[in-house]
Amino acid sequence: MNLENMYQEIILDHYKHPHGKGQVEKADAEVTHVNPTCGDEITLQVVKIPGTENFNIFYQNQGCSISQASASILFDQLNGKSLAEGEIAVDHMVAMMQRTQEPDEDILGDGIALVGVSAYPARVKCALLSWMAWKDAVIQAQGS
Amino acid sequence: MSKLDVAAIQADFPILSRKVRDGKKLVYLDSGATSQKPKQVLDAERDFYEQRNSAVHRGAHQLAEEATDAYELARKKIAKFVGAQPNEIVFTKNATEAINLVAYAFLNATLKAQFGKPLPDGAQKFILKPGDEILVTEMEHHANLIPWQELADKTEVKLRWIGLTDDGRLDLSNLAQLLNSKTKIISLTHQSNLLGTINDIDTIVKAAKAVDALVLLDACQSVPHMPVDVRKLGVDFLTWSGHKMLGPLGIGCLWGRSELLASMPPFITGGSMIETVTMEGSTFAAPPARFEAGVPMAAQAVGLAAAVDYLSAIGMEKVAAHEHALTELAIEELLQIPGVRIIGPTNTDNRGSAISFVVDGLHPHDVGQVLDNNGIAVRVGHHCAWPVCRRYEVPATTRATFYIYNDDSDVFALRDGIIAAQKFFGVSK
Ligand SMILES: Cc1ncc(COP(=O)(O)O)c(C=O)c1O
């Protein structure tokens, strides 16, 4: 395992130029997830698209390249998606980190580039932080 | 003073000869989290299990006698190492438990007094009244912060803290106001595990004595690294962990003045800490047994005594001088890398070897990952001192800590690793 496997060019691109960072005044749900061992933090909001089951995503975060790139990829994959659609991607991402599933580009898009992280257990949490936050937020928004 | 023979020391630590990350030499710069163990310590522990293993203070057989002797001899050696009497040393699981033991002495004394229950003579010092204050500092490890926050939450006591200056020192400008006649105890660290700052304990002790406040010193980062003598320090309690000073995991120490320990109610209760027991109630043993409920960690105590022997054979003055030289070199090398900023004092006055830094444009996790890829073990994160990171407005830091088995080449490896990280992420200046 070498560093280039974990920090693929595509990951570094997302890290340096993250997609979709932003904030809205009024969201249907807002969650803050932290990784207490390292201080990585994301505040993620979801806003329901009227007349659909779909949600737009807004987020602010700080943290390492993996957690930031992962949030940017999450935005690309799940912005405007429903819980049912997004859950498939979240579950797939978790399974990829646990190495129980081969990465599938149709489901994860650029997220497949995060596969190298699975070799470093201490970093898996960084990669999953935003995905867990999204699921949490959408479930909360649906409940309300 | 002659120099440490680092090569000979390294040869005593089996783990230092293993390879990491595809055959790289291990450069261990995380002793502040836990130190490595020399074979002398491992052998002492193994010998205990192979020759004397039994429950101390419980059996009437030869093994129990020998185990008890070994345990109490360990207590003697460890006490002597910090200038204390053996009956003033209480063994705990770690420093965290030792600090909690004192915090809970306050809570338990306060509760018992409230309900009119019997307390040991002299327990007044531990009974909290509304308006009393407890003082800590902004540079504490969570182990010396949360127990006091919890105590304040369960009583009508106010928790206050001494702030920090921009250069990583305690801001003592308003000490007289913070440490006042309402202060029951000030609990502070000897050396910050994040900043490396060594605090001026003389000043604190003088101010505390003037208002009759107790002083607890968290010596986790000092006892392993410099000569520490409890009588010279003049504090009331000293707490530290064995695993940071070449000793085994699972043992920590509380030193307390004997009259204070005698006046404290117990923390964890059960077997081995009692005097008499009836169904109606019990009375408790004198310290240190009062605070050592259950079958104790005898093998770890024996291992820690071997660690004390090992450090004493080197000499703590020499250990401190060695680390001082490495710290000086590391600060000099790191400050020469454009984009690297040290969080904490940038000179070696009253400073230990914990060096935290941030690299412009890079998150500490990513710095740590590149270092790890080069075989260099550092710690990244907030180092269980989150308020310190908040104070200096950094989300986290990368931290290197040095010990007796480190040498100049480790400092250079660190420097080269940081430069490699900057290159890898394209943020070199
Ligand atoms: C200054 C300081 N205090 C307290 C502790 C807590 O020690 P332990 O986790 O061994 O109880 C540490 C260890 O990280 C420390 O560095």
Task: Give a structural overview.
The complex is a heterodimer of chains A (144) and B (429). Chain A is an alpha+beta fold. Helix content of chain A is 47%, strand content 19%. Chain A has helices spanning 3-6, 9-16, 65-78, 83-97, 105-108, 121-143, and strands spanning 29-35, 40-48, 54-62, 81-82. Chain A has a 4-stranded antiparallel beta sheet with strand order 1-2-3-4. In chain A, strand 2 (40-48) and strand 3 (54-62) form a beta hairpin. Chain A starts with a helix and ends with a helix. In chain B, helix 5 links the parallel strand 5 and strand 6 (158-162). Chain B folds into 2 domains: 6-30 and 315-425, Aspartate Aminotransferase, domain 1 (Alpha-Beta Complex), CATH 3.90.1150; 46-312, Aspartate Aminotransferase, domain 2. Chain B contains 14 helices and 17 strands. The complex binds pyridoxal-5'-phosphate. Pyridoxal-5'-phosphate binds at residues 94-96, 141, 143-144, 189, 193, 218, 220-221, 241, 252, 384 of chain B.
Keywords:
A: 144 residues; alpha+beta; Sufe protein. Chain: A; B: alpha/beta; Aspartate Aminotransferase, domain 1; Aspartate Aminotransferase, domain 2; 7-stranded mixed beta sheet; 4-stranded antiparallel beta sheet; binds pyridoxal-5'-phosphate
